[in-house]
Specification:
By secondary structure, the protein is an alpha/beta fold. It has two domains: 7-167, EAL domain (TIM Barrel, Alpha-Beta Barrel), CATH 3.20.20.450; 169-386, Hypothetical protein af1432, CATH 1.10.3210. It has helices spanning 34-39, 80-91, 119-122, 129-134, 147-154, 178-191, 196-205, 207-217, 231-238, 240-250, 263-278, 291-301, 304-308, 312-317, 323-331, 334-347, 351-360, 365-383, and strands at 7-12, 18-24, 53-56, 68-73, 97-99, 114-116, 138-141, 158-161. The chain has an eight-stranded mixed β-sheet. Strand 2 (18-24), helix 1 and strand 3 form a beta-alpha-beta unit. It is globular, with a radius of gyration of 22 Å.
Length: 386
């Protein structure tokens, strides 16, 4: 089988915070060095050791840290080599996970430590079947395509969820906060290199933006030596260009004092960081000044239509950004746009198409794995303060 890209998907809890990771590859591809690549990444020790990493059994290299969980596909269990590997891992008392095959019965409670079951499949099962399995097995929802699936899974014994539903428009009944419209004004001023006083005026009109910004820039991702206590101080200590990055992320921050952090902030941070790390490796290079910063901006802004419930062309009319960035965001044009498209498709777990696009962009498979781990680690530190 051809060697494929490794795709890492955060797994969310009931409150939409990240508490695990699912590693996948496109059907018909195989992985090599995945477990080693994850474990040897310099950022890996910074991840919460309580959070499991589910790696396909064909990409698992034993021994490994306990949080690396071999994950078997139900269709493969009849294969002699796979069955032998499962037997050896059980003898070693490793925790194991199973992707429950479509149109099949659930495994017996406790037969597997973890079971991945799509909500669409689970809805066809007898009542309380999931609750019985959950008595001794942790059940993870995979393929959570919309908020209806998410709400149903939350009420039916699931513990963790994939986040495809976040790529649909906001939860039913949720209105965009007016402060986010102010954020668009603020981003436009920053892009035009406006005076500090003009920027301060926006913060005076929306004081909770000031609170959210200070919480964000004092996060572990920046870790200033002394606490930043004002917007002017933030400019003086960080500089205008780094501050622009935090303002780009701030638009996703929870407007209600952080009582329920917005998972889109985490996703925007991951996508922005991935664009920043990978865009300089593209050939041809995107026609963008300050390439890493502008690539980050493209990735970060790519979720604004979902956040605000406004079409991307309408949003871009309000932002004075380069034509290359506009074309990438609106039409996936150019190499930066194609990279963004690959990341968006990977987030929706259409892995065969994402694999093909990354191959066409000649992104190195090891570089892609390393960039994902770096981005997930960086975003998790921001999320803690948002």
């Amino acid at each position: 089988m051809p060697l494929g890209y490794s795709f890492i998907h955060p797994l969310l809890t009931q409150d939409d915070s990240c508490a695990g990771y699912l590693v996948e590859h496109a059907a018909g591809a195989t992985l090599a060095g995945t477990t080693t690549g994850i474990v040897q990444h310099p950022q890996f020790p910074r991840f919460d050791k309580r959070h499991p990493w589910f790696v396909p059994a064909d990409g698992f290299e034993n021994p490994g840290p306990e949080q690396i969980i071999p994950c078997f596909a139900g269709e493969q269990l009849g294969m002699e080599a796979i069955k032998a590997q499962e037997t050896e891992l059980r003898k070693a008392k490793r925790k194991l996970a199973l992707h429950v095959p479509p149109n099949s019965k659930l495994p017996a409670p406790g037969a597997w430590d973890y079971a991945f079951v799509p909500p669409a499949q689970a809805r066809t099962l007898p009542p309380f079947a999931l609750h019985g399995l959950a008595s001794r097995t942790t059940i993870i929802a995979i393929g959570v395509q919309n908020y209806s699936d998410h709400t149903w899974a939350q009420s039916n014994a699931y513990t963790l969820y994939t986040g495809e539903f976040l790529l649909t428009h906001s939860a039913p009944g949720k209105k965009a906060d007016t402060s986010r419209q102010k954020m668009l004004e603020l981003l436009a001023l920053i892009a035009q290199d406006a005076d500090t006083e003009d920027l301060n005026e926006i913060f005076r009109q929306e004081p909770k933006l000031s609170y959210s910004l200070l919480r964000l820039v004092n996060s572990a991702a920046i870790a200033p030596r002394t606490p930043i206590t004002s917007f002017t101080q933030a400019i003086n200590l960080l500089g205008r260009r780094p501050l622009e990055r935090w303002l780009q992320l701030l638009i996703y921050a929870d407007p209600d004092d952080g009582q329920h952090p917005n998972p889109l902030l985490y996703k925007a941070a991951v996508r922005g960081r991935l664009m920043e790390l990978l865009a300089p490796k593209l050939e041809p290079l995107p026609d963008l000044p300050n390439l890493p910063d502008n690539a980050f901006m493209i990735g970060c802004f790519s979720l604004l239509d979902i956040l605000l419930g406004i079409s991307m062309p309408e949003i871009l009319l309000q932002l004075p950004i380069s034509e290359t960035a506009i074309e990438a965001l609106a039409h996936h044009a150019g190499s930066a746009g194609k990279l963004l498209q690959a990341l968006e498709i990977a987030d929706s777990r259409n892995l065969a198409t994402a694999d093909r696009l990354l191959e066409e962009l000649a992104i190195d498979k090891d570089d892609f794995l390393k960039a994902q781990i770096d981005a997930l680690s960086w975003a998790s530190r921001i999320r803690q303060a948002a």
